[in-house]
Structures are given as structure tokens and as C-alpha cells.
Amino acid sequence: MTAAEPCKEESSLLPFVKAEAEEHETAPLSVLHKLRTIWLITRNDLKSIVFPETSFGICSALSGPILTSNQSPDPITILGRIPMVLLWTWVNVLIFDLANQRLPNSIIEDAINKSWRPIPAGMLSAAQARRLLLGNIPVVFFITFYIGGMEETVAMFVLTWMYNDLGGADESYVVRNFINALGFVCYSSGATRVACGHGQYFLNDEAYQWLVIIGGIVFTTLQAQDMADQEGDGARGRRTMPLVLGDLAARWSIAVPVVFWTIVCLLFWELDVYAWILPASLGGIVAFRTLVFRDVDEDKLTWYFWNFWITSLYLLPLIKYYGLRC
């Protein structure tokens, strides 16, 4: 693979990136500024990772013997762990986002696609983001050592390094989606372990089969998030599916797997027809919108529906558990 030729947008943005880094190299940050900055760093991933993966963990723990070694899950106890699951998911997202957003190519992309993020907005320099990353890695390690999911956190540290510093996100859309798929599996597994209680219960064989399916869903459909970001991805030379295969081919590569995986998940859990309504409806909306609505704003909205769709799939083991009890 040959190196991408520098484009006009990249050339015009490089002085901006360097100037911002120099300007904010030593600038002190107030407490409120720090809180707002941290919020903005992770804001975009709240809808796609933090809230959906928290839902996965809680629903999986509540499903008891369907996915875990807990034969009689206590809903009150498990629901009481929601803050811990949110914390676990969010701190892992923070590490990934800091590692990603500090890189020069990411700053170029964000200046076009997400100019509100702290570094292109001038609220934070790349050097300050690097220091935040250095300081937070051991903090996150000890948090997860205490509340659970430490193994998944360590695995995600490695995946974050591969995705960002080793350029896995820019290598090809196959590598990019594969690393993301492994990341989602780690988020799902870790969130479930925290929701079950640190060291109290374990995932069973069916849970690992379910995680493989989740990985397959992400691997084959995550390019839905790339549809609205084509301008910025092109400016940084990222080889996403719509840029490599073309917009139309990428759209069909989303719509068909969304329908396929919806059916697979519903058949895997052997659910009654009523359980098909929500995931089938949301999957149909994602597939339809992907093919029909093709501008940036509509693609952003379709990405929201993708997140609602995959979250609806996370509910299926819980529906299965309570269906068996009735």
C-alpha cells in the first residue's frame, strides 16, 4: 500500500494543528474547563459505546443462567451496579478517545468532521491530551482492578495501541472494523462481569457464542459510522469502506448485513414473534435509511438508529430469560 498523497485540506490544517499545540502547551486549565474538556472528549461515544454497552452488561447480568453462572439474579442488586458499569465503560472510552484524538491525523479529521472536539476547538493541545492519557492509564487500570473487568481493560489498551499508534484504523477498512469488533466484544464482556459483581459470577458458554455474534455484527456493519465522515476521513487519508469501494457499495454493505444479523439474533435466541417487533423495526429503519437518505445530516441520524438497533439486540437474552420464567 502506497502512502496517501497530502491533500490541500491537510496542508492548510497542519499550521493550525502546530499552532494550537504550541499555544496550549503550558496553558493552565481551570477545574470547570477540565470537566467540560473531558466531557467533550467522550461525548461522541456516549451514544455508541457507553450507554449501549452499559445496557449490554446490565441486561446480560439480569438474564442470569442464560448468559452467566448466576442461577437466580437479583434485579435490585444488579440495577444497583449501573453506576459502576457506567464508570467502567466510560473510563475505558476515555483512554481510547485520548489516545485517538491527540494524533495529528485525528486532529485534521476532527477539524472537518467534529470541530467541537477540544483539540480542534482550541480547548486542549495534543501535548496536554498525551499527559492526560499518561496520567489516566494507571488510574483506569486500578479502577478496573477494583470493580472488575481488568482483563478486558488490558486487552483494550492493546487494541487502542494497535488502532491508533500502529495505524490500524488507517490500514484498511477490514483491519479497522476487525479491531473495532474486538473492542466491542471487550466492552460487552467487561461490562457484564462488572454488572455480575467482581468475581462472583462468570460468563457461560452461550455468552461467548453471543459475544462472537456481537463481534460479527460490528465487523460487518460498523462502516455505518463512516458514511457521514467521508470528507474528514479523506482529508487524513483513511481508507474507510465508502472511500475505497464507493458510497453506494458501502451502503449496500450495511443494509444487507443489518437485515441478516437481525434475523440471526432472533433465531439464535428462539424468541416468539412479539420479540421480533423492536429489533426488526429498527433494523429495517437502518437498512432503509442507509440506502435512501444519503447526505451528511441524514447519515448522522442513521448512525443514531444503528445504535438503537444494536441496543435492542442486547435486550434479547433478557427477553429470553423472562420468557422462560413465565
From TrEMBL:
The protein's topology relative to the membrane is: Multi-pass membrane protein
Q: What is its main location?
A: membrane
Q: Which domain of life is it from?
A: Eukaryota
**What Pfam families does its record include?**
UbiA
Q: Which residues cross the membrane?
A: 132-149, 249-269, 275-292, 304-323
Query: What keywords were assigned to this record?
Result: Membrane, Transmembrane, Transmembrane helix
Keyword Lyase among record annotations: no
Q: Where in the cell is it found?
A: Membrane
Give yes or no: UniProt keyword Transmembrane helix.
yes
Matching PANTHER family? CHLOROPHYLL SYNTHASE (PTHR42723), CHLOROPHYLL SYNTHASE, CHLOROPLASTIC (PTHR42723:SF1)
Q: What is this protein called?
A: Uncharacterized protein
Q: Which organism is it from?
A: Lepraria finkii
